[in-house]
């Protein structure tokens, strides 16, 4: 007999699998049991053990390193009937879960962009202004090239990961609201990514101009 302990917010539940070991129980089976208990749509139900998200519904529970009497944390929101009826195409709770997943991922991206993008824009402007202040004798930029590179990597990688998350959200053809939500999320994220890449291109162009100026100075000496 195997007992699996689940904690969902303040609620707890133990599932018992008679005459079975962890290697015989698939993650998908446990997720389905959690869905039946909590009424959280499968598309928005996540299980976490030891700080790591449990993925691949076909994987046996034994591959997640679960110890006897170990506790698995469940994440997810149980939608109300009003939410489902007003926010989805045909009142399907699974579509609601996808919409929430997309919106939460987008909001996380927007929060990071709001924090870092303005500083990156200011740093890029400062770098370019300092570098081009005097063509004959360029000043040392107050913002280092490495700082700009680190900021660009942080923003671009975060935005690319968000695009991959949206791409991985499989919406049925009749989930029209979820599909539209995903399209808008992709469009907005791509817009920020294009802006970040454009600023990075301006920095590279500035670097090239500085290099040419230095070469010209060396030739004149």
TrEMBL record:
Residues 146-200 form the BAG domain. GO terms for molecular function: protein-folding chaperone binding. It comes from Linnemannia gamsii. This is BAG domain-containing protein. SUPFAM superfamilies: BAG domain, Ubiquitin-like.
